Amino acid sequence: xxxxxxQYLKDNEIKEVNGENIYVSIGDNIAITAVIDGQTLDYIPxxxxxxxxxxxxxxxxxxxxxxxxxx
Length: 71
Prior knowledge:
- By secondary structure, the chain is of the alpha+beta class.
- It is 15% helix and 55% strand.
- A three-stranded antiparallel beta sheet has the order 1-2-3.
């Protein structure tokens, strides 16, 4: 697998800010979004038995690779 980026995802909650509804990240990380083999995978569960998650953890151990924090 060729992993080029990975970022944690958190649950979202809708909040009203200045009269507009926006999504706000809340709570713990629930999944990862990543670009693998040129395709964006939007929801990779944080499950060690998931082959994509396991590969991302190995990728993150390599120098210079980081799983980005959730927005």
